[in-house]
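Continuing the batch. This is chain 6 of the set; chains 1 through 5 are on the previous pages. Same settings as before, nothing changed between runs. Recording input and output for traceability.
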Amino acid sequence: MGKGATGASSSVTSGIQSDADALTSIASQQAAQGSQLFNASFPGFQAAEQHAQQLSSGDPYAIAQANAPVAQQADAAAAGAKQNILQNGPAGGEKNLALEQVDVNRGATVGNAASSSYLNSFNTLAGLGQTGIGMGQSSTSLGISGLGAAGSQLSSLGGLQLQGQQIQAQEKGNTLGSLASLGGDAAMLLA
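Output for chain 6:
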């Protein structure tokens, strides 16, 4: 090998260094994007978690407040049904029974919504927990993977540089050995 050989050309080591820098940059970008996504979604995540926690507490006021839209729709539907019965239904007991049935159906709708919101709140909390854990693991995994690849590239570069130093040392040893041999030959000739 020629003088100053390093075992790998400077373009190879430069390319490996460039790749490692690019991988580190990508890992940093992934971490930043993961942080941005987390920051953008976390307020909604917190609101959903808080809502589910309120429902899972069994607080009747919180459950009624959460189901107010269902109750309003049930009231509007019941009012329309009653108006239709009053205008079109036959007089007598059947009309009264039909009007009572509308109230029973309205109550069942509101009651089912309240029960469902309470019972489903636990599944919602479990799902939110799994989602949060999954997002955290995914983001961490991407960052670690990128940094691991960059570390591997840098390790390869370090190995090439070490190999190059060993080759240079061998070349210096060979050169010194040759000079010593020449010196010995010259000494023999002079003797």
